[in-house]
Amino acid sequence: MSMNRRRFLHQTGTTTALAMVTAGLRPLAWSDLESARANAKRLQASLEKLSEFGRPSGGTFADGVSRVAYSDADLAGRQYLMGLMKVAGLAPRIDAAGNILGRREGSDASLPPIVFGSHIDSVPNGGNFDGDLGSLAAIEAIHVLQEQGLRTRHALELVVWANEEGVAYGRLLCGSRAAAGRLVEGELDESWEGVTKRDAIRKIGGAPERIEGARRGPFHGYLELHIEQGGTLAKDAVPIGIVEGIVATDRYEVVIRGVANHAGTTTMADRQDAFLAASHLAIAVNQLVRAEAGRQVGTIGRLNVTPNVPNVIPGLVRHSLELRDLSSAKIARLGEAIKTKARAIAESTRTEIEITQTSHDDSALATEAVQTAIEGATRRLQLASRRMPSAAVHDAQIMSRLGPMGMIFVPSVGGISHSPKELTSWEDCANGANVLLQSIVALDSADLG
Amino acid sequence: MSMNRRRFLHQTGTTTALAMVTAGLRPLAWSDLESARANAKRLQASLEKLSEFGRPSGGTFADGVSRVAYSDADLAGRQYLMGLMKVAGLAPRIDAAGNILGRREGSDASLPPIVFGSHIDSVPNGGNFDGDLGSLAAIEAIHVLQEQGLRTRHALELVVWANEEGVAYGRLLCGSRAAAGRLVEGELDESWEGVTKRDAIRKIGGAPERIEGARRGPFHGYLELHIEQGGTLAKDAVPIGIVEGIVATDRYEVVIRGVANHAGTTTMADRQDAFLAASHLAIAVNQLVRAEAGRQVGTIGRLNVTPNVPNVIPGLVRHSLELRDLSSAKIARLGEAIKTKARAIAESTRTEIEITQTSHDDSALATEAVQTAIEGATRRLQLASRRMPSAAVHDAQIMSRLGPMGMIFVPSVGGISHSPKELTSWEDCANGANVLLQSIVALDSADLG
Known about the structure:
The first copy, chain A, is an alpha+beta fold. Chain A is 34% helix and 20% strand. In chain A, strands 1, 2, 3, 4, 7, 8, 16, 17 and 18 form a 9-stranded mixed sheet that branches. In chain A, helix 4 packs parallel to helix 5 and helix 11 (368-380) crosses helix 13. Chain A is elongated and about 80 Å long. Mean pLDDT of chain A is 92; it is low at 1-24. Chains A and B meet through strand 10, helix 9, strand 11, strand 12 and strand 13 of A and strand 10, helix 9, strand 11, strand 12 and strand 13 of B.
């Protein structure tokens, strides 16, 4: 939507201020909300405290966290968060999928809520910022408004999504998918470490027997603060990233068939070496992906050689291939270019190369008006920002299917994530929390049509 | 040695013929020995029968054999062979290392024996010709001489080496190494499937407590007939290969260190992809090895990627590298060229590449005079032949440390070995047996100085 369709709070300030008086809160003034700031020390303390749930025994904050969804550590962390929510004036509840929700009513009950939050489950041996920052900054935003007696027009709904990482049961974004009615057929009956997902959800207070109850009603906008998990903001010292969307991902399985043969007796000319073909293909993927401008990436991350012994020429190679970009069309085109090149490599190496697409995840574009609202918030806070894609998966991409979505990124030192070395400076954490809070304020007065 | 140093039997024929008469054998005539031929049908029947020991249950000859050394199938196969040896007039005995020996005295007791044979143990799911052909053709040679009442000047010593393949206990050429006093410190105490090698040797009739007794005395020459296990003879329809030597092998372990990172959030420019570096190195190895004329080969057969998941850029690759050629100097030079290229690849991919040599097996050159004797035999038999290296390992390389050595190769269809599909035509088997027999005859009259 265009800027001229935005409707600011001060245009309707008079009637809203009257409503506030009746609720015993300070009269609502645009400038009060605009000047609200997160309590950086309180945010840091809560991140430090949360890191204790799932910390390696005898470790420190720097040793990271293993808080896999549905584990006892996850359960304890969730209890801690619900305690913080109560202090911030919320009455936490758990939905059928195990997501933690907390609602703060707005001044106009006819308006749909603004939803924001993140997750607190982690990968094994993960870091203290992935998900945690967005969840605790969301609580901090509510806490500040509550302390200062400020009320928004829209109700605010905080959410801590269950099992974002998908380490347990191998499927990502479980809580948000349940909220969007996008669970996979039979998913609740899947088993992990001897427990069904049904029982795991029950363990954290969910109600799998009425999982449909987790489906979300309409919302005004969805916001999520998250660490970048890449190194670009940190490298260029840009404190805030405004996410343009979560990239599309095409996944392929590549099978290369040569002839396994004796590494001594088979002359170089007679070889049909599947690994030599794979090497040529890996270099071609790299070259083709880098040949055009843009942020597209291509990765061969998993590769297995058969029979994989030093004195036998590899007869078979299987490997993954992943292509990501905001543009589904661009990665589809790249996939075709790679297949064409693979045919030439197969011919020159006398191997067979079979490239099969195994999945396509569409991109999830952030709503332009939400990006504009976040941008306004960064200007108000005098923080430099940059628009950028998210190459990592987030619950926000599921929410984008249901309504307007935006994400805020803060720098990851060295781009390291899913590691105890994951790090975002306390200053950047506070900046992110302030941008989240002020983006809520900006959205509250925006018509997202 | 030069041809003019060869001393032929007919030069000393008279006295030898007299000796033969006293032993009740036909008077020895050069032409009688020269016209001796293997019984092709009997050889085929014995190969077919031997294939039953270790054959998959319900299978046929085409299903190959699993006759791992020291197994019950190996034991049964050895019993069968010793039966054949008795029919051929030998009194089989088992030495301290478990090698089967059979001696046929010559006419001149002052001369050292001619030794020949091979092995009958196999890899799991192996073929019916690797080792078997050389062992049974050796028995066939003796059998023919015995049938025709022909006696050589030198004693003949047939040997069936124990555990050539080294599948059990992971060390190759066990029997021949024992015969050369080249067992590894503590080797007899090594365990495999819960049994020490000491007990395994005892199972097949050896005497590990006096393993030194397996050491061989001097011999006139060592001959081994074997399938090529490569495809060059079959491809060019050359029936006989005369081995120039068993190649030298340099083995390296390559470790490539990049940075494991998120496959979505890390831009192409920021990557330090260990597998991309490995791909460049694999192509460089192939190009450098092929850049100069010769039969040298270079192989990357084993490669492992860490963490080996589709959405993480490979942070670590470990792989093998093997270089083989008759010339140790050539593969050493190639190894240096590869290291130099690796430094450039490490720099351009921003990775670390560490190449460590883990072993050097020296080449084992066949004795020129033995090659000449084999060549003479092929001419007599009107069989085309070609001199060639052996890129596979054989007991002959151990024997070459103790005395004159030569090997005879016959074609492997498609170059396939260590597989049930291993195949040599019955005609080629018979040709090989005849060349072995006639090479024995030729050696018998040759001065190998």
